[in-house]
Design a protein that fits this description.
Radius of gyration: 35 Å
Keywords: Glycosyltransferase, Golgi apparatus, Membrane, Signal-anchor, Transferase, Transmembrane, Transmembrane helix
Structural class: alpha/beta
Subcellular location: Golgi apparatus membrane
Pfam families: Exostosin_GT47
Membrane topology: Single-pass type II membrane protein
Family: Belongs to the glycosyltransferase 47 family.
Strand content: 5-15%
Amino acid sequence: MGVGKWSYSAWRRASESSSSTKLLLFMIPLIVVAGLVSILGPNPIANPPLFLSSVNSSSSTSGVVTTKEAPDEVKQREEIVVMAVDFHGKEEKAISDDTDFNHSSTPPFSVQAIQTPQQFNKYEENVSHISPNVVPVNESNVPPWRPKLQRKFSILDRTEAGLLQARAAIREARNGNQTQDIDYVPVGPMYNNANAFHRSYLEMEKHFKVYVYEEGEPPVFHNGPCKSIYSMEGNFIHTIEMNEQFRTRDPEKAHVYFLPFSVAMMVQFVYVRDSHDFGPIKKTVTDYVNVIAARYPYWNRSLGADHFMLACHDWGPEASLSVDNLHKNSIRVLCNANTSEGFKPSKDVSLPEINLQTGSINGLIGGPSASRRSVLAFFAGGLHGPIRPVLLEHWENKDNDIQVHKYLPKGVSYYEMLRKSKFCLCPSGYEVASPRVVEAIYTGCVPVLISDHYVPPFNDVLNWKSFSVEVSVKDIPYLKEILMSISPRQYIRMQRRVGQVRRHFEVHSPPKRYDVFHMILHSVWLRRLNFRLHDDQ
């Protein structure tokens, strides 16, 4: 009995052991196959999202939102709402079902504009008590509710997104085809890149907005000379204040902010004549900046970087020294574009000096062809500054081909001499700028820029070497040799280009497309494209 009982137990254990062994042998291949499938099968995390397939980031934190997936749970990813802001301020929502944003190609510009961690790090959770990193337990059969994370965009965010798209369009146009234009299509060697300039100009026309501070009273503010060598101050102030295309009354929508003071009027009404004291002018500028900084948030937000001043008076740079950030950060539009005195071409704008004695260009435009110009080079003017005495010392009454005069002979017309000359000499005076540059262009005379530190107007767009001659001060003795080395064929090409770029220096009321007013605005527009602002609020 004991033996039989022992035998049955032993048999049962042996039978169970045999069944377990068979089951184990059956399961091992299944486990191996399942493992291979899991390893070799598709991985949903590695697949890039459809809309953000080209998003690029340097680290895992540079995407719009990233979520960690809960271990040992069914991986249910939250939907991530990405706002793509187009030029018209509309928000386009794209829902991504993936959180892996670390891909290699360049992001779409509308999306990239809202991805910078430093700039856009504030998100709003629909339900704050649910962490996106935790999958909540759902006891019912209803699919788990998934919170959406949505970015709250400020007007500044949208403004910067639009500028980012404009930058992209300009870069793309560099090597692209010409854009059609009913008025004018820039083309030729007079432009550094005609396609890029044209696209940039069109983008400016569509989007650029300027806010003009209304504080201040004439004659120092909202006023300026329009019939003198400083006429560009008054002309620009008057034109921008009357303009409905670029001026905005809503400062929140502005790309730049204009400080509407006239340095020329300060010299006339604030400066004490012959006192050599800049104090009153500096105090006027300082007080004005303090007022607008106290009333509006925009100056302090950018430390003045998106603000600009305009001055054609020689003391314009000195006036900008009144406020440290005005000099260091703001866009200074200056006739006195002297790099040896702190002018920075990447930040500041060279303003053409135009002497409108009557307030109009009537009678100033036009001149004969190259074959009808008998004088090689011409200059007439006073001994202002250090360069002109050197010019007169070497060439006054020395050569019939080089007509250099301190005073014109009686009965000789200054503008007729410009029209008779092939080259018009434009030496700097007390300051680097000279109205003779534009006078030469108006009359079809090839300008000869004689200066060492002068940045010519609109040089970010115009290739001055294609339609002018640049001569350093030390080469004044070799002036005739330099000009004679230019072949007749080359001169004809240069003179033709002078006529083609003339439209960019013409003053019109009301302004015309591509004229000097629009070119000044375009130069400011380009400087604004050079930096980005972000809202720290």
